[in-house]
């Protein structure tokens, strides 16, 4: 297996209607995407989901010796225009609400949460690291021979 194929992550989107798409991963997972006219997730909401999900999964992996009683994540950001008029999100905030049992192992895991959050944010969460660091995005068009 080449190094590039082992690092590649991809999804495929198919248009299902006006301003509606279905995103699929290679494992059969499906998410509906739209512009917010119904219950479909918007692309911005999916970015927020990715930030919260990556943080949550990473923190959970680092505190997995005890099952949490509560593990809730809220993610928010403000959609604004920069000086050039381009859209972007700012003031991104991921808030974790985690509680463990008050036994010895639960207390140990509760004490690890702050460190796990820092490790997630500074090193382990691919999504937040990518959002924070400049990462060029190329958009290309496939030329089809269909009329």
Automatic annotation (TrEMBL):
Secretion signal, residue range per the UniProt entry: none
InterPro entries xref list: KH_dom-like_a/b, OsmC/Ohr_fam, OsmC/Ohrsf
Transmembrane segments: none
Domain of life: Bacteria
Name of the protein described by the UniProt record: Uncharacterized OsmC-related protein
Gene source species: Aeromicrobium choanae
